[in-house]
Amino acid sequence: MPELPEVETVRRGLAPAVEGSTIGRVELRRPDLRFPFPQGFREGLEGRTVRALGRRAKYLLGHLDDGATLVMHLGMSGSFRVADGTTAADAFHFPRRKDERHDHVLFRLSSGDAIIYNDPRRFGFMTLVEPGALDRHPLFARLGLEPMPGVLTGEALAARFAGRTTSLKAALLDQSVVAGLGNIYVSEALWRARLSPRRSAGSLVRRDGSPSERLVRLTEAICDVIADAVAAGGSSLRDYVRADGSLGMFQHAFRVYDREHEACPRPGCRGTVKRLVQTGRSTFFCPVCQG
DNA sequence: ATAGAGACCTGTGTGC
DNA sequence: TGCACACAGGTCTCTA
Question: pTM for this structure?
């Protein structure tokens, strides 16, 4: 399910229920997701108050009152929902009912609400990071730039692209370059920037290490597509994104993703959207206007 | 450094 | 209806 916009949408949906609440009983309905839950995971959460729910890249971060951080990654198919304690019987009235077999973690809150983590494929994971250790934790130490204006600048991206022969598609999927992009938004950003996914990353950097016009265009396209997607509540494909069960809307704004054989939507372009496989993942692009 | 394959896991859609 | 296969929003590990 989740790239940065979907994770941010989940964060916004969960924050009102979670921030300021104390965690009661935690139910781990299996010993692992992608990885085993670490020793002391449950005990480290029960009785703690969540000061704030944050996000870095595709990670949700529960900042606890003892300084520890609950780190959560949704993998491909993870989702959260809030079961309202006062209307528990109605809590599962979703447009498409979640399969309760895949409800793997349940956090009871002091408010009476419960937060339920569902993940059919179990590529997600959770862990608990000691106070002060987040920035040097292996998951976070090498994370790249958040795709936001002022952070993801032409200069910053040029420094990371310089000398690299790998494709733009692969470079943008690399979380140590830009943190939070995934398969959908890379295709969409490259289309917006009119750049071929096969072009080498290093080709957008000038000899003196400064960003080319194309690279500046790319940074703007990335920031724009992410901002637009966040504003739309992310994209809902096969799964529901939002904690209240409602749908993201950005899938209706896809220009190339999952649109193979359709006409390129760029005004004046007569091209047709093509699909190719790079690093084992589908890339969608217009070979006519993405030179 | 980089590409590619395979791994993890379940569900869905397609074609026969 | 059943079956086989391809594919899916992520990421890690191994090979060459």
Answer: 0.95
